[in-house]
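stuck on whats below:

***
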Amino acid sequence: MIYGGQDQPKELTTGTILPKVNVELFNRVLEDFAREFQLGEDKHIILTIDRAGWHTSSELKIPLGLHLEYLPPYSPELQPAERLWPLINEPIANRSFTSLEELEEILFERCQVLLTQQFAIKAITQYHWWPKIQV
């Protein structure tokens, strides 16, 4: 599973590839995210996410400085990151793989390439109506 995000004002994209989705791994992603962006009492980020079960669990441990904003139910078209899937999936479309490791390696390489193409990512993920909040 690819966990990813984009800092709209700074045009920075980040991502993590993990073997599955669950609350425990999502907590680790949130912890890593907070550490990477140095969140805390003096620095806050609003993270917009969908309502997947692991995003809404009572077992979530939300780091200090991170605030979750949930999209309306059943509205994947509102999530800018959803538009990245076609770009991510290009090298794996219509292919079969001999192992999960082979698939993960190709996805990892694809994500590395996409991280160098911030303009392309911005072009498909920055909605004109998305609020641009910067303090």
